[in-house]
Structures are given as C-alpha cells and as structure tokens.
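Bit of a strange request maybe. I'm writing a small parser for structure token strings and I need a real example to test against, not something I typed by hand. Could someone generate the tokens for this chain?
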Amino acid sequence: MEIQWIENTGGFDNLREEWDELLADSASDCVFLTWEWLRTWWGHLAERRQLRIVAVRSGGALVALAPLAVRPGSVQLLFPFRVVEFLGSGTVGSDYLDLIVRKGAEAEALDALSRALGPSALMLEFGQLRGSRSVAAHLGARLGQGGWKSAQTKVNTCPFIDLRGHTWTTYLATLGSEHRYNAQRKMKNLLKHFEVVFERVEDEEQRDPALQLLIALHNKRWIERGGSDAFHTAGHVAFHAEFTARALRRGWLRLYVLRLDGKPASALYGLRYGKTFYFYQSGFDSQYARHSVGLVTMGLAIKSALEEGAEEYDLLHGDEAYKFHWARESRDLARLELFPPGARGLCFRAMTGGRRLARGWSRRVFRKRAADNLETHNGPLGEASSAARPAENENCVGVAPGEKT
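Reply from user aminoacidic:
Good idea to test on real output. This should exercise your parser:
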C-alpha cells in the first residue's frame, strides 16, 4: 500500500473524479463526504487550517482517503494545541463525517492509515461520526495497539424517516393522530385560502434567487431570537452559493419555494443523494406563521421525496421536538478523540477533559439565555431549546444543522 499526502489545493482538485467514485464504493457514502461538499468547504470555511489529506493506493488505484486538516490551537476553544480533524468540521453542518475506504479493502487500508497517522504527535478529533458504525472507530482500535488512548462521546441525534414501502397516505398513517390531523388540516386550509404553488429549483436562473430568498427568510426569522449560525458569515453564504450550484449540476439540489397567491411564504433547502433526502435548512415569512407554512413545507418536501423514490428522509442532527413529530427513528452522532502515547497525549487528555466541562457549563448558560429570549418574544414554549440555536414551535420548520462543539 502506498501512502500519499495531499497538502495543497492542486492535489485536492486532482482527486475529484477518483474521490466520488471511491466514496460510492465505501460504507461511508453520504453527501457530506463528497468532493463537492468538502472542496467547497475548503475554499470558503477552512480559515487557518492546513490541508492534510491522506490517500492510500494499491497498484496505483485509490483505496482509501482520510479527509483531514490541521486546526490551529485556540485559546477561545480552550485548547492551544494544533488538532487533526475532518474536513467539513465546524458550524457548516456536516453530519456523518468519516474515513472513506473501499469495500473489501478495509483491513489493508486501515493498517496503512494507522501507519501513516500513528507517528503523529497531534491529537486526532473526529467529529460528527455515525455512532458505532464509523470506520474511524476501527482506526482508533488499531492506533490503540500502538499506545494511543481514545474517548468517544455522543454529541447529537439525527432523526430520520424510513420511507421504504410507503406512499404519502401510508406514511401519514404512521404519524401521531394529533400531528397527522394538524398537518392535513393546515394543508387543506392553505388550498382554501390561497393559490398554492410548491416549486422546485430546476435551473441556474432559479437557483440564486431561491437561495437568497431562503437566507433572507431564515435570517429575518432568527435575528431577534438569539441568532442562527447557518448563514451568519460571508464565508457561509459564499459556501452555499457555490455548493448549491455544484449540487444542481450533479442533480442533488432540492431547493423548494412555497408561494401563496404568487408571493413567497417559505423555502426549504434539501439534498437528494443516493437513496436519501437530506433536510438541510428552511425559512418562512412570519406574516404567514398562523397558516403554519413551515409545517406545510416540510410535509410537501417529504411527499416529494416519496414521489421521487427516496428511501429515507434524514432530518440531520438536532433533537428538536418538531422533528420527532415527523420521524419515529433516530441515530446517534459521536465525537472520537484519539490521544498519542506519552506525556503529550496525557496533557491533551487533561485539557480535553477540562474543555468538555467548560462546554457543558456554557451550553447550560446558553440554553437558559435562549429560553429566556424566546419567552420574552413569544411567551413560554414549554420545551427546552437546542444547544446551538432555539428550536421553533411545531408550526415551524426548524433550524440549521451545525456541529455543536
């Protein structure tokens, strides 16, 4: 097995065709590990990280990728040392990050990755893993044989809907009676009072106006409610502008606008990749809140996913109550921390433990402030808000996926 280190954008670009072919033949296959998502992230949100992709080849053929970068130390994050982490980390909302290994070549490829990363003096922090099913966990076990220590923590939950075997009618029958009745009633009421159009972006001419509408609706909704980290920087906006263009060309983009009497009332940003529809983001005009346009838009997106043959509708991370009105199942996301042998690793472990305690304290403070803020603007909601952003009520669609670290 040959190890290749890619540490510049030219090398990253040269992997484009091989990358997605390998991903499709791996157990880690998901939209957030595509070359398109991660290369766009690198172009707009990498900040001061250093590129450190590890490619493993056998006879010249690509058999594994470790999509990594080195994050500089940060006093703000209470960890002044450099850390190796996945590309796509941070608040952009990349779920199911992992190593990418060709099926059938796992043992040899993981041995090679272990040899490549084992001599490192830096801590490895692998976030947003698919619980115990991650390939990274197997790498951790191999590194453990060389004296590395590990700690794995559940960091979030991804509700999802198994759509296999369902029509819209049979899916509705699986919902709780109250939510089913509410969803059907709200949809019927809209049709009574408005000319309703639910349109999907089909070409580049439609894409940018629809994306700008989504961003404007989302930000307007959240600016007085504690804020959202979905589109909060110019880098995030530029990322989505470029990625949605790439996703449209690949046939992945599912960007919808709900119009009532010709006026935009809500928008939903999703991705259809393989057999899965990923619900990524949404926004709605508060003047239509009493018509529950957020709820209706989510329902219409699920219906559309069913009609085009998707087998799963993934609401991505966040345990907000509204998601479980639609979904009955969920999967955990985990963070795996790997510490090198010796005194340096012991130091990393001690500082990580302290940082974890500080995170817990800051989350509790933020949740209280967010809840107080929501109560001030809207009255008591009766439910706790999410750690990164307050959850909307059941008539709203929701908040941005983003890594809560």
